Amino acid sequence: MIYYHHFLTDCSGYAARGRNNDFPELQCCPNCRARNRMLRHGFYERNAIDAEATYRISICRLLCPAYHKSVSILPTFLLPYFQHTWRTILNMLLAWWISCLCVCSRQLRRFYEKRGWKKQNEIALFFRSEGVEAIFPEKKAEKAICLFQMIQAMEEATFVRRWWHHRINSFMAAVNYRGARVAPTF
Length: 186
Hints:
This protein is an alpha+beta fold. It has helices at 11-17, 86-99, 106-118, 120-129, 140-153, 156-166; strands at residues 2-5, 39-49, 54-63, 70-75. A hairpin with a 6-residue loop joins strand 3 and strand 4 (70-75).
């Protein structure tokens, strides 16, 4: 299971602090809801790619003493199973859609672009459930630009928290993917 936490820093700051980040201590297991203090269960390394650099960062794992299941504490700037930060993905797509500026490989841009096209209805429903009553453009490209600019305007912790309250899969996950479970946070 994934537990999102806002570390009040960006990717470079998180990477610089490494295992010395201020990781939360959970007093309740998000899996079984047992009122047991979660035990530190080690770290795993993963890549985080933003616009400036590639970082190797440590992700803290906690273990429930009653349920014996682990929980990974993921920073809000990351998406589950993706190396690029969600803000970098948005910037890549918007640079291409608005000014045809390709800031990554053609294959990577196309991969994210296809996911973006398929997620338009889900993103629109997310904003409708947030109370946005604006009329979205009819054309697919204009609608995608509008939706992704609305996401870009949100603060990352706010977007992540609200997205997971309304959705069961990750922001850029395949439409029919139902794998990653995310614990309600904040």
